[in-house]
Write a structure and sequence with these properties.
- This protein is α/β, with parallel strands linked by helices.
- Helix content is 27%, strand content 15%.
- The protein is built from eight helices and 13 strands.
- α2 packs across α4.
- The protein is elongated, with a radius of gyration of 21 Å.
- The relative contact order is 0.15.
Length: 297
Amino acid sequence: MNVWTQWSDIKVPDGINLFSPENYPLDSSDLSKIDIYVPTYMTGAKGLSYVNQMPNLKILQMLNAGYDDALAYLRPGLTLCNATGVHDASTAELAVGLAIASRRGFPEFMRDQIAGTWNPRRFPALSDSKIAIIGYGSIGKQIAKHLSGFEVGITPFTQSGRDGSLTIDQLDAHLPKFDIVFLILPLSDSSRGLFNADRLAKMKDGALLVNVARGPVVDTDALLAELNSGRLFAALDVTDPEPLPSGHPLWSAPNLLLVPHVGGNSEAFVPRGRALIESQLQLLADGKVLEHIVAQG
């Protein structure tokens, strides 16, 4: 059995051959020999496109927690696994960092620094905030854990109401009370456009929306209208469209802190990503069921 991954030095069990860019470049090799494919992290659609040249592929192991873009490549006999847990630390860290930076005025102070202007002024605090976490999986729980050191009130929401959360169909009744709303739920038919113009209008004046989920969870035009009015604030790790093209109005929107989808892309990812692949290959060699199976063709 042959596995292709971006790392050439991971540990593989006996009976599994390791292919990598060093000995098996994807653009010039026979991809029909690949049984297990781990697309290089952050290569997006380009990395996934090679699946179409792998007729004997049995396992597609993503290095992302989100897998909506990989579903289009499913076919009979193909198992899709995601990377639940790999990005919890990095993404939760960034989410809380974005909230602190936005609430305490870091973007404005950075502009002052560049201009050489000493301009002390008061911004809201993270402390004493009422916070919603929409999506309470492993990353949502990690965000809550990080926030537990602050004097905040946290209300989690999920589709099912598991783990003591409220259900998302209860969101509208509670939304006007929250100072900060974190989005960390998968992109699906039910979550696409979840924060549309009507729902954004229900948020309290001056509230902050932090999106570390997927861009299409938020209606971009509706968010732009709220930002340009000055009523809401946003901190985005993800956008719709993505990558955000040059000249897009989000680049110049007021009240917005924007980073280029780097939630999971920290040095903390590397050891966790490697450990995931090694663990999955060992399960396979031992004849056990793989972890993190999210779909099967």
